[in-house]
From TrEMBL:
Entries under PROSITE patterns matching the protein: AMP_BINDING
Domain called AMP-binding enzyme C-terminal: residue spans: 414-489
Listed SUPFAM superfamilies: Acetyl-CoA synthetase-like
Residue ranges annotated for the AMP-dependent synthetase/ligase domain, each copy included: 10-363
Statement: the UniProt record of this protein carries the keyword Metal-binding: no
Protein name per UniProt: Acyl-CoA synthetase (AMP-forming)/AMP-acid ligase II
Keywords in alphabetical order: Ligase
Pfam family name, one: AMP-binding
């Protein structure tokens, strides 16, 4: 049984080295043996750079085989891989280097112009890995000691959409366990090909896509970025059977299909659609299911748990936006945000989580760890949800994003759901804005469908049929595109800042 993530590759090197694993945009395919050779090269280079067990290796990356090889090579030498998206700003990258206390920084220069630009700033030199560069060894970096040194596989930095990013420590056991859970939830096997554009710098791309595929022997149609035309081509010509991504991916894809006049994409091998890493809107779900003629599966997960804790079931097409049912060895409790006491079925509260996949903490940040951990090994997620009698979980928003208007609690997701049923709206995001009396008003930002124009009066009339007066926005603002981070999550902090500048 695999104990470290590189053991997943070792199995296929022994059993089926010639089997294809990664398919690239230029038409090349890499077998498990090819990935093994890249991992050998990466391992030798880490040794030459004096990377030690417990060191952090930062990888400024967009998806490519060399990044996967570095992740596995770090596992071999006992170092911790720490991927950060190359499209981050220079100040963000510099901050991540410091937060990770990195021993060395690699850049996927050939796969990403952004990574190449960061490499130039660091005066990086060519790596032994094709298309990679690395900076100088950072001599002051201190390797981790103690039990964590040998159990942690990777650091994933939280996105920072609602606060300062923190380094989540993910263990080998948690990642491998989730790979089993994820693979079983979609019957993943060697016959499958996943469209792998979700960044491996995020838990979605690392756990759900890379590690799960390694465990199952499934193949990856790997891409550094999402391109809707490339996806449509891959569905037709490259046997893509599994498509996973955040809701923003599917929103962009639907807009592209509308612009191209495509009613039903040709996808002869596609059998599994999944969205996660963000709240799912019912209107979006229905439109995706209509376009592909099959269920859009959903789940609830987070970096702090190395993947999903709830998933919908294969073969079940729910009519709602439930995140599905608890996965093996995971527990979710709905609690009173003020007292932490469990709430009855159907009541909304903060979601507490515990189980095999839970992080051992935030890297070298005991205060941040203590702020979210509760007695009994529970993690207080800050997410709001409710549990139904059948065990299905519904996530309704973030505790910090809840708007209090005239003494009533308003959940942005509820308002967004109503807005997204308007025929002009592609997607929306709702934030609160404090006004003079300390009350909050609701500001809605909408991204319109291709060719649509904002008619705020008509939209307000539409909302009157769907929402109580206290839930309706005071302002509706059209944007060409909602701001998102590199993982597709809407940047609510950016929108809150924009809302402050609106005239009353």
């Amino acid at each position: 049984m695999a104990e470290r993530i590189h053991h997943l590759l070792d199995r296929w090197l022994a059993e089926a080295p010639a089997r294809p694993f990664i398919h690239l945009p230029d038409g090349r395919s890499l077998s498990f043996a090819d990935l093994g050779a890249l991992t050998d090269t990466a391992e030798a280079e880490l040794g030459a750079l004096d990377v030690r067990p417990g060191d952090r290796v930062l990888v400024v990356a967009e998806n490519c085989p060399e990044h996967a090889a570095l992740i596995l090579a770090c596992s071999r030498v006992g170092a911790w891989s720490c991927g950060v998206n190359a499209r981050m700003a220079p100040a963000e990258i510099d901050a991540f280097v410091g937060k990770a206390d990195a021993r060395v920084v690699f850049f996927t220069a050939a796969a990403s112009r952004s990574a190449a630009a960061h490499a130039q700033r660091f005066a990086a030199v060519d790596s032994a890995l094709p298309g990679m560069q690395h900076g100088a060894v950072l001599q002051d970096a201190q390797p981790e000691a103690g039990a964590l040194r040998d159990t942690v596989a990777s650091l994933i930095f939280t996105s920072g959409t609602t606060g300062q990013p923190k380094g989540v420590m993910l263990t080998h056991d948690a990642l491998i366990h989730f790979a089993r859970v994820s693979g079983a939830s979609r019957a993943l096997g060697p016959q499958d090909r996943s469209y792998a554009f979700v960044p491996m710098t995020h838990i979605f791309g690392l756990g759900t896509v890379l590690i799960s595929s390694l465990l199952a022997g499934a193949q990856l149609v790997m891409r550094p970025q999402f391109d809707p035309d490339d996806l449509l081509d891959a569905l037709v010509h490259h046997g893509v059977s599994q498509l996973q991504g955040p809701p923003a991916l599917f929103s962009r894809l639907l807009a592209h299909l509308q612009e191209r006049g495509i009613q039903r994409p040709e996808a002869p091998a596609l059998r599994y659609l999944y969205t996660g890493a963000g709240p799912l809107d019912l209107a979006l779900k229905q439109r995706v299911e209509a376009a592909f003629g099959q269920a859009l599966h959903h789940g609830y997960g987070l970096s702090e748990y190395a993947g999903s804790v709830h998933l919908t079931r294969l073969g079940e097409q729910r009519p709602d936006t439930s995140a599905g049912y608890a996965v093996a060895e995971a527990e979710v409790r709905v609690t009173d945000p003020a007292t932490g006491e469990p709430l009855p079925l159907g009541e909304r509260g903060e979601l507490w989580i515990r189980g095999r996949g839970l992080m051992p903490g935030y890297f070298r940040d005991p205060a941040a760890t203590a702020a979210v951990m509760r007695e009994g090994g529970w993690y207080a997620s800050g997410d709001l949800g409710e549990m139904h009698a059948d065990g299905a979980l519904f996530v309704v928003g973030r505790l910090k994003e809840m708007i209090i208007r005239s003494g009533f609690n308003v959940y942005p997701a509820e308002v967004e759901t109503a807005l997204n049923t308007h025929p002009s709206v592609q997607r929306s995001a709702v934030v609160g804005r404090t006004v003079e009396d300390g009350n909050e008003e609701i500001v809605a930002f909408v991204e319109l469908r291709p060719g649509a124009a904002l008619d705020a009066d008509a939209m307000q009339s539409h909302l009157r049929e769907l929402l109580a007066p206290y839930k309706r926005p005071s302002h509706i603002v059209a944007l060409s595109e909602l701001p998102t981070n590199t993982n597709g999550k809407v940047l609510k902090r950016t929108l809150k800042d924009q809302a402050l500048g609106l005239t009353t």
